[in-house]
Every structure is written in C-alpha cells, then in structure tokens.
Request: fold
Amino acid sequence: MTQHQTIRSSPRSTEPLLSVRDLRVTFQRRDERAFKAVDGVSFDVRPGQTVGLVGESGCGKSVTSLAIMGLLPKRGNTVEGEAVFDGDDLLSLSPSQMRDRRGADIAMIFQDPLSSLNPVITIGRQVTEVMERHQGLSRKEATPKAAELLDRVGIPDPKARLANYPHQLSGGMRQRALIAMALACSPRLLIADEPTTALDVTIQAQILALLKELVVDTGTALVMITHDLGVVAGLCDEVNVLYGGKIVERGGRHGLFRQPRHPYTVGLLDSIPRLDAPRGEKLNPVPGSVADNLPWDSACAFAPRCSHRVDVCTREMPRWDGDDVVGFRCFNPVGGPR
Amino acid sequence: MLRFVLRRLLQMCVVVLVLSMLLFAWLRSLPGGPVSAILGERQTPERRAALEAALGLDEPLPVQYQKFLQRVLQGEFGVSTKVLPGTDALDVFLTRLPATIELAVLALLLAVVIGIPLGYFAARRAGSAVDTTTVIFSLIGVAVPVFFTAFLLKYFFAVEWNLLPVSGRQSTGIDATRVTGLFVLDGILTREWDAAWDALKHLILPALALATIPFAVIFRITRASVLDVLDEDYVRTAEAKGLSTGVIRSRHVLRNAMLPVLTTIGLQAGGLLAGAVLTETVFSYRGVGEALATSFREKDYAVLQVLILAAAVIYVVINLLVDIAYAVIDPRIRTR
Reply:
C-alpha cells in the first residue's frame, strides 16, 4: 500500500504530541451490565496535525475526548490505558495537575455553543478568566487581550462584544467566542467535539474555515470529532473511523476517501446525499443502528449491519490489519485483502 | 431597568386593588358581621338596623366598597374593638410590625445561612449517606407542624433546662429606650447591651421554630438547583478551562443555581412577615401573627382588615424585590 504512504501528511520522524494507547472507558451503572463505551482505542496526534475521529452517535468518539481531558464524571466510570501528552500520562495525573493542563496546553470546544456558555456572565469575563487562571494576568491586563482574541476569531466590534452576554450573540458568534476562549492561552492541542453540529450550514463552513486558518497560523494540533465526513474531508490529515468503541479504519484523508476498505466506512461515504444524484433518488443509510451491535470479544460488532458479512464475522473478533498510519479491522474488506 | 421596575410597580397596584375587592367581599360575607360583634347576638332588629344605618351597612355594596376604598386610601381603617380597644387599627398593626420583622428576619437568616450551604454540600455528594441523611431531616422539617416544634423547643430549652425565656419579647424589669421598635436593634443603637441581649434571648426559640420550614424548603430547592446546574454544559466548559474549583463553584455553579432559590426565599419571607400566627401564639410573642389570631377570634374587623391588606401589600412588595434581584443576577431577564 505504497499509495497511502506517499500521501502521509506529517513526517514520521516527529514525536507525537499526544499518544493515546489502548484507551478503555467502561460505564457501570447500578444494577446494570457494564458498558464498554471505548474499547481499546489507540491513535497519535503530531504537532500541527489535524486528526479526525468519525462515527455515528454512540460510537465512543466524544467519550474518548472527555476521557483524555479528564472531564468524565468520576462516579460509575472506569478509564484505563494511556494518553501520553508531552511525556506525561494525562490519565494518571492528579486532578490539580490536570487542571493546570486544561485550558493552557490542551483546550476543548464543545458542540452546543449556547449551552456551553454561562448565561449570566459576560463574554469578556468568560474569555479573561482563562488568562487570569493560566497566565497570571489581572482582569485589567487580560481585557485588551480578550478583545484581540475576539477580533482574531472574526467577531466584529470586539470591544463592545466583551460586555455582551451569550444570549445577545448569534449562534455562529457564540461558537467563535468559544473558540476564542479555547485559544486564549495558545494551547498546543485543541479538541473540537462536533463544533459545527448545532450551527446552520453557511455558518458551519465559516467556522470550519476559521478553525483551519487558526491551526495553520498557530501550529496547534487539532483533534476533530464529528459524524460528518464532509467536515473530515475538508480539514483532517488523518482520519479514524470509530465503531462500537473501536477504531475500525484509519487512513490519510485522500486514501480513505478514494479507497475505503471497511464496509462501515463505505456505508458512511455512501450515506452522504449527493447534489448531482437524480431527483427523487432514495437516501442510502447504513442499515440498522448501534443497538444491534455484537460484543467485540467474540465477533465483529458491525456484523449484524454489514453487507459484506461472512461466517467468521459472527464468531471471531477481527484483528487490526495495518499499522499506526493506515489500517482496518475487517475479515472481508471492500476491495479484497491487502 | 427603570422601565422594568416601573412596569412592575404598575402591575403591583392592580394586584393590590383586586385584592382589596376580594377582601371587602369576604369581610361582608362573614357570618355574624360587625353589628353582632358590637351589639352581641341578642338584640332587637330595630337596634341592629339603627347601627347598620349608622355604619353605612344598609347602602348598596358598590357604594360601600367605594367608601371603604376612600377610607383605606386615607389610612382610616376604624378603631380596634378587641386587640387594643380604642386604638386606631392601623396603629395596632404598626406597633406590632417591628416585633414580627425582628422575628422574621432572624428566622429567615437562620434558614438561608444553614439551608444554602447545606443544600450545596448535599448536592455535591448526591447519593451519599450524608446527602440521604440531610434530605430525610429536611423532609421532617417540612412535615412536622410548626406549633409542635415550637412546643418542643419551649418545653426543653425554656421549661426543662431553663436556658432561654418562655415567652414575650423582653423581660420585665429591663428599662429599654425605644428607637425603632426593633428591640435588638434599639439595644445596639442606644448601647444598652443588656436590653439587646435580653431581646435576642427572647427571639431565639421562636425564630428557631419559625425557621424550620423555610430552612427545609430552601435546602431542598438549593440542592435540586445545584444538581441541575452541575449537569450544565457551561460547567463542563469551565472545567475544560482548568479553572480552580473555587471559581467554578462560586462563579459558574452557585450564581446560576441561586435563581430558583431566590424566588423561594421571597415567598418564604412574605409568609413570615405576614405573621407567624402559630409560633407567635405559642410563645405569646406580641407580633402581627398574634394580633391576627386575636382579631379573627374576637371579630375585631377593623384590625383584621388592616392585617390582611398589609399581608397582601407585603407579598406584592417582596415579589417586586425578588423580580429586581432576578434581573440583577440574570441578564436574560434584564434585556427582555
């Protein structure tokens, strides 16, 4: 598969900034069976690289990001594995060490910009509080910097906007403000969890363009979590497709889109509505839902929904076929075995 | 903000006007009525009719209401017949009000100072043994009738152990100078420390009894509200910023969680100020509640009118204050 190797976007020589190894998150609710939300996920993010985590609702992509950030509620959740960032395993840092990292070295943007902003505090205060916390600035010193940040993320009349409350901004402006808060301390890694899902389409495009511009300008590495392959195509250097808490396919974006191997990836690509399709043509969803999943221990979780299923799929777990740059997890991949 | 307050003030006037009509209709429909109260039940119809004419009770109701309203606006409610015979009814209320304010403020202070931190604490440890215990205690606080709590407190602290006075507002033999009518405050203002301390000792038991229900309600609302806010996305955002626990608690959790608590405090304050009938009666504490009980029992209509109308006005004013406080905390209301 030399084709994949030639399009690799980041040189292999660079040490990963974030290296997630065998991450497992188990939810245990009282009187219920333990649920493996994330089941052995490994991936690397190199400085300046944009890595996508793609999958439908419930595949474990958001839980992965929250586990790395240490933001999962303590009660009823177990997190195992490693997430090495800059030499430290984030999963074994103390809460106060983690607090020093969050917002400074690693920042996060969330899905719904309205509910993610505190309704009773001004935008300015919500931006300055990060700088006060991590850069030791006073509120007075941080305020002009906050205005600069709002300006940089494309909010017009930033000085006046500092005094506004979230409900006085439009959806797109709110997401820009959240991005400004995330970038306030120039983090080396930014995790964006479905940052455009709650926005309408034209605004989505603007926000994606802004994110792209910012990561290029600042050299920030970006982990992009999305269910939208369109977002991935425009933004990511490397794409990980998640299913049932495991990575089922990985590749550079060009390779993945040109020659998808896992039937689930193919299904996701086929389900994107095409503008040039004849009128009245039916949409092409992946049949079934995540509720049909088989347990990974003894089968391929995707098997019940898979059009490429063979006998072995329901008897054995497929192994990872590939390395940490390209690969897939399938007994009967599209296009035949490698 | 000014427009917001003015609009609320206007609404307030309408509410009080409607309440005055209801009050008027209710008092006129009570069995017995002022004539029986003044003359007694055994009287000739002629004498009753003569008194009715003298009091204007033979006129049509709208005319009576109009005259009633005129008198009310001039502050004339008539003369007390039973509570403080011969005194102007409004003066009866005004002399009783400081006692009730003192009691209500202390009770509410206790309820807030204990209820809010405890509610927050319980929410942070939701599901734990501490949480369950405090919730059960607060349930008991709501469920046990106030007069029972009051009797228990009185029996143990005043009678059995003799730690605090049994009843009243001030011991006999204390020569205190009156400034505001709030005994504790008077004692502090005039530096008569013994008088202030004595008045405070009289306040403790009734205030404790009175505080149980507001405490339980404030505790439960705080707990539920903090639990809601802890689940909010913006608290997660604050965590993602790496802010210190203290900042997250005070700036992001408590401020938002206080909104429903504020409404509750307002409602409770209204109830307390309108008169703690049971508690004041148990402790023979001569405040508005005790006057209300007496005037109702003895059919002192003039005083009854004043007290009910005053209760309505107090409720409405406190509601206005809560609305203003709401607008101060929540910008979404201010700019609407």
Summary: Chain B touches chain A at residues 127, 232-234, 236-244, 247, 251-252, 255-256, 329-332, 335 (CB under 8 Å). Chain B has two domains: 31-74, 89-334. Residues 31-74 of chain B form one domain. The mean pLDDT of chain B is 82.
